[in-house]
């Protein structure tokens, strides 16, 4: 087990109060961080990439679980000092990158198989996820903590209230496995809502052929007016009737009713018609 002092002692020594501007909510419960690490699967090969490690509770759990290599991306200088102490306690197994995660190409870090394991800063969590989904096959898995509402959207099925753009694009590229909920009282400071850990396993090939950029446009248009018929909501993309017919979708269908494959068909129709 870790030769390091308790997390609360480390935070006190470094004056690491959580900053709202960085979306920080610290997790001190070592049982929970260990459970997240175990949820990521076998860690003895390749690279674990952690985003926003803060005081290092999850970093320690990954290393204690046998992670061969952990790369931690952190922009907070106070947390970087703590990470350096962890690196010294686990020689050769932890690398710290002082950077904004939004500006880091995680698909090129370390060696394969690459896994992202992180308690994400909630203020940029979905932006980061979409960034990683563009390169989904670069990762063996992504074990991530989000607000529960976000995971509900990731896993939602057609005709359910949470089904939307994020559901479609994520399920198109990944298998979605919600793992467990984390009560807000487990964090310091507590967030306003419950959190959920989810494991995303990228598919070897997407559910159906389509271009990522076009899928973003199609889902944005369709779910922008989710309760309207597609012949109305897709007008922003051009001749909606032609697109719907080419995709083999009933003109009276609504976005919230369509399976992922139908959005892929719409995206292919958009590209086939060379719509801007």
From TrEMBL:
Q: Where is the signal peptide?
A: none
Residue ranges constituting the Ribosomal RNA adenine methylase transferase N-terminal domain according to the UniProt record: 32-204
Which amino acid positions bind S-adenosyl-L-methionine, per UniProt? Answer: 25, 27, 52, 74, 100, 119
Which InterPro entries does the record cross-reference, listed alphabetically? KsgA/Erm, rRNA_Ade_diMease-like_C, rRNA_Ade_Mease_Trfase_CS, rRNA_Ade_methylase_Trfase_N, rRNA_adenine_dimethylase, SAM-dependent_MTases_sf
A GO molecular function term, named singly, is: 16S rRNA (adenine(1518)-N(6)/adenine(1519)-N(6))-dimethyltransferase activity
Per the UniProt record, which EC number(s) apply here? 2.1.1.182
Enzyme superclass (EC): transferase
Q: What is its main location?
A: cytoplasm
Q: Which transformation does this protein catalyse, written as a reaction?
A: adenosine(1518)/adenosine(1519) in 16S rRNA + 4 S-adenosyl-L-methionine = N(6)-dimethyladenosine(1518)/N(6)-dimethyladenosine(1519) in 16S rRNA + 4 S-adenosyl-L-homocysteine + 4 H(+)
Compartments, record wording: Cytoplasm
Its GO CC terms? cytosol
Q: Which UniProt keywords apply?
A: Cytoplasm, Methyltransferase, RNA-binding, rRNA processing, S-adenosyl-L-methionine, Transferase
Name the family the entry cites: Belongs to the class I-like SAM-binding methyltransferase superfamily. rRNA adenine N(6)-methyltransferase family. RsmA subfamily.
Query: What does this chain do?
Result: Specifically dimethylates two adjacent adenosines (A1518 and A1519) in the loop of a conserved hairpin near the 3'-end of 16S rRNA in the 30S particle. May play a critical role in biogenesis of 30S subunits.
Name used for this protein in its record: Ribosomal RNA small subunit methyltransferase A
